[in-house]
Write a structure and sequence with these properties.
single chain, 145 residues, mainly alpha, 434 Repressor (Amino-terminal Domain), Protein containing Helix-turn-helix type 3 domain protein, DNA binding, DUF3791
């Protein structure tokens, strides 16, 4: 099956379980921390961030195993390698351990910035990318400049 069909199946599973529990899309959204529209999108198989999908599944005590196809895995692999390289460079630049850098970048939204802006950021030099990360984290309450 293709990825779209699997996401659609997960959406149907979520809708069925939400109905079994007598929850509206709005109520489920509130429990998860997203709007009714996002729950509707997920239930209709229109996709969502994996983290949001996981929160919905956890809230409903459901688990879903999704096998990613080769193309999706290839993209994810590039993103993962890119994020790892950035964490490593960030750690070097600010004299942190990899774990400290990773925790800092996660806490101050640097990692989600990299994930969301990968298409543009991966075209920059690693130094420019690390500089952008530092700025994003600083703007989100981080202490490093």
């Amino acid at each position: 099956k293709d990825m779209g069909a699997k996401i659609e199946e997960i959406g149907k599973l979520i809708r069925k379980e939400r109905n079994n529990l007598g929850l509206t899309q709005d109520e489920l959204g509130q429990k998860v921390g997203v709007g009714k529209a996002q729950i509707s999108k997920i239930e209709n198989g229109q996709g969502s961030r994996i983290s949001t999908l996981k929160k919905v599944l956890d809230t409903l005590n459901l688990t879903a195993t999704v096998e990613l196809n080769a193309a999706a895995t290839g993209i994810n692999k590039k993103l993962i390698e890119y994020v790892v390289a950035n964490i490593s460079e960030f750690a070097k630049k600010y004299d942190l351990t990899i774990r400290e850098a990773s925790n800092y970048l996660n806490l101050h939204k640097g990692l989600s910035f990299l994930e969301q802006h990968y298409d543009a950021e991966h075209l920059l030099s690693i130094d420019d990318s690390v500089e952008d990360l530092a700025r994003v984290c600083y703007n989100n309450g981080g202490g490093l400049r």
